[in-house]
Amino acid sequence: MNPLLRSAMIPMNTLCFQRNFAACSRALVPVQLPSRSETHLWYVVPDEVKSASLLGQYSKILSPCEKEYISCVRGERLKKTALLARVLVRTTIARYQTNGQVDPSSLKFRKNIHGKPELEWDENDHGSPPPIHFNISHTASLIACGVTVNSPIGIDLEEKDRKIKNNIVSFARRYFTAHEVEMLSSIPDPETQRQHFIKLWTLKEAYVKALGKGFSALPFSTFTIRSRNSSRNCQSRDLSDSSSSDAEIVVESVDGSSSLMNSWQFTLLELAGTHFAAICVESDGSIGGRVFTPRKVTARKTIPFVEDEFHPGTDAVVLGGL
Amino acid sequence: MASVTGTSVRLSSVSCNLKQTQVTGAGISGSASAFFPVNGRSFPSLKSRRFQISCAAKPETVKKVCEIVKKQLALPDDSAVTGESKFAALGADSLDTVEIVMGLEEEFGISVEEESAQSITTVQEAADMIEKLKQKAA
Hints:
A: 29% helix, globular, B: 2 domains, phosphopantetheine (chain B)
């Protein structure tokens, strides 16, 4: 048995819960909450989760509502992704154990008015709620859950190779801002342009998700996301120098009402070698005049209840600037 | 990224579909005589005149929308996509939905408000919206 569990007070129902996972080599490894300036990113590669009995065990920790949703999803691959996404959320939050051992299946969720999932917590049953904020995103080949403390978070993933069916500049003219159209139009190489488009899309999605609003409540044409370079010309189009540590990704309102926008911090990364991931977090730093400090992101790959891997420097590579 | 939501496609997270957005006019059929489920809720058919503004979409419109959806999501031709199919359940994320809407705009010569674009979640909703916009343009 995991030594951490041995030393903890283990209620009977938790022990029984662990015993059901015969396919697993160990329990959920508990972790400390991220610090206020850190984001945790947990991810699952669906193709690596093959065991039918493990997937069957995973189904058991879902709520009836979640099971019903998955039954509406068409196709085995999509059903599996939907299942793993819910399992990732539940098991990730359960790891943080701020109120002792938490059974992932006991967590309750609700949606805000725009549909963003949030943790629902009954203080009478479980004491004060953990200060956890989370957001999830998935593609066909990757599922990720970002976790912060005390800061609303939005994340978005896209496959690096994702092909856009429409003409990129036409798309941008229709849905993005003039500044972004100009930036995209200025990229001569179609492949670089496509990648820049994907990165921009993930950043914009992460922003509206962090706000808890979603696309229809906050159309993408109302805000610009771009790189701001503290030491060079802001209009620099030297996209080949994407590793510049001076580059900061910022959001600006198109109508000039930008007073609240300095409080959003963006991180753009390459995840698992296959995806672009954008994270947007509300920082509690002072507005204006602050020194740009990139936010620390700790990424861990997981197969819940089976194994966790942490490969700093290779799992998640931060891309400085857009 | 899909990254949903109970499946509001825009948030890509997976959980029970209890969307709180308003029901669009497209969801209420003035001419069909059957129940017409929208977002899990059913609206009995109403032959009252005030619902004649939005008509149930023509079958050929629904068929065309299905084709565009299948193409965007790279689904095989024989895959079961019908009026009731939810984009998110077919694997569409928010970017797919926007691309589908763009494809519909080009195909039907219409222009969709962004606010409406992301609130379309099924093939039928898309088809009904197209009919409504075509009528307005006519």
